[in-house]
Amino acid sequence: MPYSLRMDADSRSRRPVLPADQVDLAVEVFRMLSDATRIQLLWALIDRELSVNELADHVGKTPASVSQHLAKLRMTRLVHTRREGTSVFYRLENNHIAQLVTDAVYNADHATASVPDHHRPDADITALPTRSDEATS
Question: What is the pLDDT of residues 93-124, one digit of tens each?
């Protein structure tokens, strides 16, 4: 069992204590998610894989800058790579990452709208707004 279980009277109503190494990794994941570019990159990778250049176009950054962000995401096992010839394609490491990013985006949507877009029947949320989108709104 990955969790340490305490068998006292109160343990049935509490969650198990997490091992320190698992907590440290979770903290590192949240540290990686504390950057707007990395959120945009992860959002773009939900349900698909893209090259560095495609991701750079998507987020409006240089390929060099995007590569640095992707290297950090790869080191923390949030993205996975596949090489095809000279091109490298990125995808999310697993569905938990997609769910974590989606939940964070939807939670932000709840905080900023009386009826969040993702609750509207005709909503098709495909991209996060960029600063340039916000300036023109």
Answer: 999 999 999 999 988 887 876 665 666 666 55
